[in-house]
Amino acid sequence: MSVAVVTDSTAYLPAEVVAELGIEVVPLYVVLAGRSGREGSDVTSAEVARALSVRGGHVTTSRPTPGDFVTTYRRLLTGGADRVVSVHLSGELSGTWDAARVAAGQVGEHLVTVLDSRSAAMGNGFAVLAAARAAAAGGSAEQVAQAARETAAASRTFFVVDTLEHLRRGGRIGSAAAWLGTALAVKPVLHVTDGRVVPLEKVRTSARAISRLVQRAVEVAGDRPVAAAVHHLAAPERAERLAEQLRDRLPQLRELHVSELGAAVGAHVGPGAVGVVVDPTARAED
């Protein structure tokens, strides 16, 4: 049985990994300066960062349509796949998972399995990688889906933003929490738990924030082999500092991906955001 793996553009997987493992990526839409475009191809991270840096700048996002997923699923199934496993951004943060679920119903739920990763960025991406590697090894659709579930449940996502205002505007965090962060002039450390963005702690400086992200990653890793990812929006130097500290502090780090957030997630976290995702299910031989 051949199993195809699908995800959405917010997984922010390295392009070479997507190509190598044959992962199909369905893009979200981003609305910027009155025009709507597909994340990654039509609207770039740099455009979003510039728009949000301007006072009153506003960027919105929308999910792929069920029709986008139907087209993708049918193409894969007619192209030789027997089954499709589709793994997506948290349903608490986006309607993407719901659009995929609706599409699966139209194509045939016995042919398409849709999973909510309950996470974002490489918190979703690592689950997709686990699924794609299981599929490449000849796993059944059930085995591929289970690999994704286990990795999604184990992975942890932590990030810091310069302001909570962008998350508040997009409805991803409450107004009270956003106001508190602004009023106290703190750097909020957040995490994704049960599919939602939740404040974790507050620190006073960017350097302290990076230190806390590293410490959180170390706590998740323990003495196990891990994979990790560093994300940022318009903060490459901050991201590289975080990556270097992770290389130093995680002796069993098996793989590390560093990438800029795309437009869809970047619109909600804003310029200056930096984060880390840790996957403790990495195999010792990876």
| Share of residues in helices | 40-55%
For the largest beta sheet, what order do the strands appear in spatially?
Answer: 10-9-8-13-11-12
Separation, N- and C-terminal Cα atoms: 25 Å
What is Rg?
Answer: 18 Å
Q: What proportion of the residues form beta strands (DSSP E)?
A: 25-35%
The secondary structure category is alpha/beta
The CATH class label of the largest domain is Alpha Beta
Flag low-confidence runs.
Answer: none
Q: Could you give the count of β-strands?
A: 13
Q: Which fold does the CATH topology of the largest domain refer to?
A: Hypothetical Protein Tm841, Chain: A,domain 3
Please summarize what this structure is.
By secondary structure, this protein is α/β, with parallel strands linked by helices. The protein has helices spanning 15-21, 45-53, 66-78, 96-107, 122-136, 141-154, 165-169, 175-183, 206-221, 236-249, 263-269; strands spanning 3-8, 24-26, 29-32, 35-38, 59-62, 83-88, 112-116, 156-160, 187-193, 196-203, 226-232, 253-260, 274-279. The longest helix has 16 residues, at 206-221.
Can you walk me through this structure?
The structure is a single chain. Helices cover 42% and strands 26% of the residues. It has 286 residues and is an alpha/beta fold. The protein has two domains: 3-28 and 63-153, Rossmann fold; 156-279, Hypothetical Protein Tm841, Chain: A,domain 3, CATH 3.30.1180.10. The strands form three sheets. The protein has a six-stranded mixed sheet, sandwiched between helices. Helix 3 (66-78) crosses helix 4, helix 5 (122-136) packs antiparallel against helix 6 and helix 9 (206-221) packs parallel to helix 10. It is globular, with a radius of gyration of 18 Å. 50% of the residues are buried. The model has no long low-confidence stretch (mean pLDDT 88). This is DegV family protein with EDD domain.
